[in-house]
Write a structure and sequence with these properties.
- This protein is about 35% helix and about 20% strand.
- It has about 325 residues and is α+β, with helices and mostly antiparallel strands.
- The strands form 3 sheets. A 5-stranded mixed sheet has the order 2-11-10-3-9. A 4-stranded antiparallel sheet has the order 5-4-7-8. A two-stranded antiparallel ribbon has the order 1-6.
- The longest helix is centred in the N-terminal third of the chain and has 21 residues, at about 5-25.
- The model has no long low-confidence stretch (mean pLDDT about 95).
- It binds the ligand Cc1c[n+]2nc(N)[nH]c2nc1OC(C)C.
Amino acid sequence: HTTPAERALALREEIAQHNHRYYVLDEPAIPDAEYDRLFNELKAIEAQHPDLITPDSPTQRVGGAPAGGFGEVQHEVPMLSLGNAFAEQDMLDFDRRVREGLDLPAGDLFGGGEDVEYCCEPKLDGLAVSLLYENGLLVRGATRGDGSTGEDISSNVRTIRNVPLKLRGEGWPAVLEVRGEVFISKAGFEALNETARANDSKTFANPRNAAAGSLRQLDPAITASRPLEFCCYGFGRVEGDLPATQEGILQAFKGWGLTISRELKIKQGVAGCLEYYRDIGERRAALDYEIDGVVFKVNRLDYQRELGFRAREPRWAIAHKFPASEELTE
Ligand SMILES: Cc1c[n+]2nc(N)[nH]c2nc1OC(C)C
């Protein structure tokens, strides 16, 4: 015999597992009807015993609109933008500055220089967002804003289905601020505009605008109706330990139920970065999300700290952008 509290806990865990499989792994294990039955059973128990409702319950994804608009959030660790590389020479200069900044031997025509290891991934064309987890629970979401002050969009980020309300597994820091991109896929964007046309309401110019417009709705139920997704790319405030490399941190995030880029790769030296840039450039049209470049980050965290940030952007990271596309938006 299980008590309502035990049954509610078991259902929360089982539903969280199915959410992870469906929205993060894209490998559902049960038909939607079975999922709905579990969800409705939990809603019924919570209706009879409201004291059993917890913030990480899947029934709490779509809350009420924040009274009086979005509050402000001060970013303890500024959310800076990236420096850009446009031509190959810009990448060579970036890598040289990195190696000089780390006092690594430059080598000569006959080699001998030590390659810096870079963590590479596509630069999603969405909206930078910060998610704050305390003791594994999602407690706040915020936009980048001007990098120091953003908007509190906690009730809206909770509706993004691949954002875990509670981190999975164990070993996560007591305080973990995850940073990443909120975006809408190309397929999600087409479907959204198809629906807008059918309802004679306004269509969106591009997926980035659609994501921004959807995130800044005061009513979370509207946000919840939009096909928003989140992909992590970094971190901000941390109280506790993280792995010693960019790639190790992102793999840890994946183990905690967060989504990272499937295109994440480690490359050696600037030659490896240019190879990655060409490869993603060739496959760009086939990706199901819009990107405006690729991002290279020095993989070792001790090197990142040693290089630090220039006035407004890190010395240890750069976005290598694709030429702006001339074709008109639809
Ligand atoms: C602004 C930004 C944007 N992006 N996008 C990716 N993929 N990585 C990444 N890193 C960023 O900033 C780093 C300094 C963490």
